[in-house]
Amino acid sequence: MYSKSRVSAVASLAILLMLTGSNVAMAKPHNTLTLGLAGGFVDIGSQKYHSKGTAAVSISFFGTSIPSSVGFSYSIDASVQGTAVSGKAHFQLGGESEEEEDDDNASTSPVNVKGRVQLFDMIPAVGLPLSPSDPSNPLACLPSCTSAIPGFYVGIADIQGSVLGTPVSLSNVTILIESAYLSPFGGPIFIGTPNGSISIAATYDSAISRWSNVQTAGFVIDGNGTQVGQFAMKASLTENLLNGKERDQGRVSLFGLTGDLAFLNSEGKFSGKSVVPKAGSFDCTDALSSQIGFTLPPKTCLATGSHSEGSHGLRGDNEKTEIKGDYSLDWNIPAIGFTGEVTATVEEED
Fold first, then answer.
1. How far apart are the C-alpha atoms of 33 and 21, rounded to whole Å?
2. In this structure, what DSSP letter does residue 251 have?
3. DSSP structure class, residue 183
4. Residue 191: which residues within 8 A CB-CB, separation 6 or more?
5. Is the distance from CB of 57 to CB of 71 less than 8 angstroms?
6. pLDDT tens string 60-113
7. Are strands 206-221 and 14-18 parallel, antiparallel or unpaired?
8. Can you say whether residue 207 is alpha, beta or left, with left for phi > 0 and alpha for psi between -120 and 50 degrees?
9. DSSP per residue over 268-289, as a string?
10. Helix (H, G, I), strand (E, B) or coil at 28
């Protein structure tokens, strides 16, 4: 999420390898390892987002404050390939109730506005790859990022209807729709124009993101801080931003280790889950408003952490070494780097 504290150069680029139990040079059966981990995102191949909501906290439409009781609904389907965005969204303010539709003599709502939005761009929350010289800046790669996580989707809207008896007919209106990534647990999120002429803070009932070909990488170092190897991961992630839960799976490899540690060169699978904790979260609306250059509605950005855990199974380059165990990782703010621990048992086949 837009959440989690700054990632240092060591945190985004290193993996601390701590071996406990027996001498690693022996690589004996059932050798128990404890790995301290720190890594960071390198690239996100593709992302898909779907969210929808049926309520608003606040509505301002061209200077008119509209009570949220008039009703509001929206949905968004977005795809991101690298930094390219496509998709569509729609929203509706007011309209007829079910009872009014059945009564020929009933009057319609004083507000009835529909908007259809074609998505074509984003304001990124995180750009990749991270900069080794400025790892605490999630947008240091601009304008040359190869992939990015949307903070806001940008679209062109056609808006038709009426507000308090005044007809509304607008075309080619630039609309921003905030990603639920920046405001987990149901929002609210911002939907509106960059100049604030339309400003809606809406909650959501569902928000699912699916990422594929997610690449993470870093180095392996020993207890003296000496680099002894590297690691790489490629994963698929599915996250429910309403409840803050995620499923993770993919492949991981350790490589470039030599000498007594060469037996750790390996590749295999991992799978697990991630949870966004509410404890320690804080409002980041003011910081986000400063970043994008206009004032957002209150409480439309929430900074949080994230915790991942699961299991892994690797096989050594010699096809005789098996490394199996569990991992536990804590993600920083923003969610582009992690630190944590992996426990494993190493077995050598005859």
1. 7
2. E
3. S
4. 74, 91, 175, 176, 177, 178, 198, 200, 201, 202
5. no
6. 998 889 999 999 999 999 999 999 999 999 999 986 543 344 444 444 578 999
7. parallel
8. beta
9. EEEEEEEE--STT-EE-HHHHH
10. coil
pLDDT band, residue 350 (cuts 50/70/90)? low
Q: Cα–Cα distance between 16 and 6 in angstroms, integer?
A: 19
If DSSP codes are grouped into helix, strand and coil, which group holds residue 263? helix
pLDDT tens profile 157-171: 999 999 988 899 999
Q: Return the SS3 of 204.
A: coil
Ordered DSSP codes for 38-91: EEEEEEEEEEEEEEEES-EEEEEETTEEE-GGG-EEEEEEEEEETTEEEEEEEE
What span, in angstroms and rounded, lies between the C-alpha atoms of 170 and 159?
Answer: 5
| Residue whose entry in the numeric block shows the structure tokens 């898909």 | 48
The single-letter code of the amino acid at 6 is: R
Handedness of CA 30, 36, 41, 46 (dihedral sign): positive
What is this structure's pTM? 0.85
The model's pLDDT over 106-130, given as tens digits with 9 standing for 90+, comes to 445 789 999 999 999 999 999 998 8
Residue 139 pLDDT more than 90?
Answer: no
